[in-house]
Amino acid sequence: MNNRIINILRQGKPEEKVKIQGWVRTKRELKEFTFIEVSDGSSLANLQVILNQDLPDYNNVIKKLSTGASLAVEGVLVESPAKGQKIELHAQTITIYGECDGKDYPLQKKRHSLEFLRTIAHLRGRTNTLGAVMRVRNACAQAVHQFFQEKGFLWVHTPIITASDCEGAGELFTVTNFNLDNIPRNDQGKTDYTEDFFGKKAYLTVSGQLEAEIMAMSFENVYTFGPTFRAENSNTSRHLAEFWMIEPEMAFCDLEGDQNLAQEFLKYVFKYVLDHCPEDMEFFNLRINNTVLANAENIINNEFARITYTEAINLLEKCDRTFQFPVEWGIDLQSEHERYLAEEYFKKPVIVTNYPKDIKAFYMRLNEDQKTVAAMDILAPNIGEIIGGSQREERYDILESRIKEMNIDPQELWWYLDLRRYGTVPHAGFGLGFERLVQFMTGIDNIRDVIPFPRTPMNAEF
């Protein structure tokens, strides 16, 4: 039976016979023995394997073993006399699947920069840092589904190809079946999308929210968890062209219920990861950012502060800090403002509500003051905004008016307006960039290092 190394390290017993498969991380030859460390990606720690000269074809095997080689080892577990590991494997048989030229292997026994590792994304999962990132990412994904499923939410698969721009930002990837060397033109000389595959202009989705709202009007509580795309030409540590979004939508829910669910969600996910990836989280705290564990405990153990946008502006105007972006009512809060509130003033996550309508999307519910909308953002220490949400506008006439204010043709959203004609209800939801969550969880600075294959301007390798 094949055994995962993580299970052996946690539960393996002396004299137990096991078989492991993985890749050599290090090799150390002595006179009568050779020590290798093997990883199968299941844990931060490697398993030490002892090869002695009684092993069949010992000398030939040793020559072929180098860092990066893949192999299977069968043998018996014994107590380890060395510090740091309770158990090790004494090999009885070894099968080498693939040799590796140690001199050319990009992952040498040294610390590589994350920038370098992005150039070898096909191999970087074998490093401690990226291995830990991917295990935490996996645990986060499991926690997302478990949280919503335990609450009776329906997971809905919203379309990747869409005809709508949810955010109204216009930063869209166009989907076409045209021969780009012979694009059909209409009488005005513009691209004739009636001749295209869908008979109209189509895009890669920037959000599944609007479609999730459709499903919430039939199933009450739903969530999406899937890839989204933004054609934003930004080469920064915060932007990706392809990323994953978590977007719950709840019928019969107001802004307060939205805030409560978002807070409960974050607490659940952080606790799940601490419980299931303790070694990886300790690694991040030691090697990447020494606030990782404190931030996680801060999320889990504290009630989030709650203030209105207007109160936030007042706090920022009165503080003794000079900001790069001046503060006044009506601005969109910048990262420096958000981080001041979360890191320095409240020293914990803070939920800011009721933003000016002019800086928010058309679908957010207009408040009675006619100046603000029932929106909320959760700001977290060391990262800024991590969740954005709102109560949605359920009143047909006001929604139609807001759509027109944004210079959007109501005919493009006829189906969205229809939801307000046939049994409309108060409803709310929020969105969370999955990679931002993993960044916050791990302390990794660059968002390109928390996704297996980052897609950025001028970069679509692998």
Write the layout of secondary structure elements.
Elements: H1 5-11, E1 17-29, E2 33-39, E3 47-52, H2 58-64, E4 70-79, E5 87-98, H3 114-118, H4 128-150, E6 154-155, E7 161-162, E8 174-175, E9 202-204, H5 209-219, E10 221-229, E11 242-251, H6 255-276, H7 278-287, H8 292-301, E12 305-308, H9 309-318, H10 335-345, E13 350-356, E14 372-380, E15 384-392, H11 396-405, H12 414-421, E16 427-433, H13 434-442
Catalytic activity: tRNA(Asn) + L-asparagine + ATP = L-asparaginyl-tRNA(Asn) + AMP + diphosphate + H(+)
Subunit structure: Homodimer.
InterPro entries: Aa-tRNA-synt_II (IPR004364), aa-tRNA-synth_II (IPR006195), aa-tRNA-synth_II/BPL/LPL (IPR045864), Asn-tRNA-ligase (IPR004522), Asp/Asn-tRNA-synth_IIb (IPR002312), NA-bd_OB-fold (IPR012340), NA-bd_OB_tRNA (IPR004365)
Give a structural overview:
Helices cover 31% and strands 24% of the residues. The chain is α+β, with helices and mostly antiparallel strands and 462 residues long. It has two domains: 101 residues, Nucleic acid-binding proteins (OB fold (Dihydrolipoamide Acetyltransferase, E2P), Beta Barrel); 291 residues, 2-Layer Sandwich (BirA Bifunctional Protein, domain 2). It is globular and about 85 Å long. The chain starts with a helix and ends in a 20-residue tail after the last helix. The mean pLDDT is 94. Homodimer. Its EC number is 6.1.1.22.
